[in-house]
Amino acid sequence: MKLLLVEDEKPMLKALHEILLREGYDVTEAEDGETALGQILTDVYDVVVLDVMLPKMSGIEVAHKARTHGIKTPILMLTAMSELDDKVTGLDSGADDYLTKPFMTKELLARLRALCRRNVQSVDGSLSAGDLCLDVQGLSLSSTKTGQSVRLSEKELRILEYLIANQEQIVSREQIATKIWGFESDAEYNNVEVYISFTRKKLSFIGTDMEIKAVRGLGYQIKKKS
User: Fold this and answer.
1) Burial 11-20 (b: 16+ CB within 10 A, else e)
2) CB neighbours of 147 closer than 8 A, spacing ≥ 6?
3) Which of 8, 68, 164, 225 has the greatest CB tally within 10 Å of its CB?
4) Which residues are CB-contacts of 62 (< 8 A; sequence separation ≥ 6)?
């Protein structure tokens, strides 16, 4: 899981980074709101841990601007404030959950696991984009327009799962390789292209209006055919 950790207090940043690394997260850091927003808008994360009190731009502003730009990445907001109004402001700005400092490590990790599960799939285990319906549990893809369905390999499923979960964004070949094959995998970028080709054939087979579009020099995005 790729995680953006936004915290300006260096001891807290270091401690959280070490905890999250031990839990298997691929952690990127930011120490101010402007940097954090730039990373959220240009990279793809599974979850963002966002402190409220930040230099240059508050966490409230970062969350609001990210949502305004169509970013749907789950956001867990951290704050030393415990008043109800502060929590409501954070949630209204676009945060998905709220944790008040000081907190127990077990609670932080449980909240993150819940947000990551929520981001991956819906309650019934499916994801959708346009007329596409991806059944994560059943390893199948179908079109609500044509009624056709097809079975997917594990890699095809995970590529579609990742693209659909981040359908408002362009994801790079490196991001796909890291997400599907793992951070320390020796998988080369041509593996991504091969499996993207396989997945496109499945999309064509069911007659969907959606396509995996290559954006030159940037990566791939799933979107409706133009």
Assistant:
1) eebeebbeeb
2) none
3) 164
4) 6, 33, 36, 37, 40, 50, 54
At residue 189, the pLDDT reads: 65
- What pLDDT, in 10s, does the model give residues 86-120? 666 767 778 888 888 888 888 888 888 877 765 55
List, in sequence order, the alpha helices (H) in the chain. 10-22, 33-42, 59-68, 84-92, 105-120, 154-165, 173-181, 189-206
The tokens describing 37, both together, are 């927003």
Query: So what's the pLDDT on residue 91?
Result: 74
Residues in the chain, total: 226
Q: pLDDT higher for 116 or 210? A: 210
* Top-confidence residue, 27 or 168: 27
Q: How far is CA 144 from CA 78, 85, 131, 194, in A?
A: 40, 42, 5, 26
Residue 74: closest CA among 50, 99, 109 = 50
pLDDT of 122 strictly over 60: no
**pTM for this one?**
0.58
Q: Are 160 and 143 in contact (CB under 8 A)?
A: no
Q: How far apart are CA 46 and CA 26, in angstroms?
A: 10
Please give the domain boundaries of the chain with CATH numbers for all domains.
2-120 (3.40.50.2300), 126-224 (1.10.10.10)
As given in the structure block, the two tokens for residue 154 are 């594990």
Report the distance separating Cα 50 and Cα 36, nearest Å: 9
Measured CA to CA, the distance from residue 57 to residue 19 in angstroms comes to 26
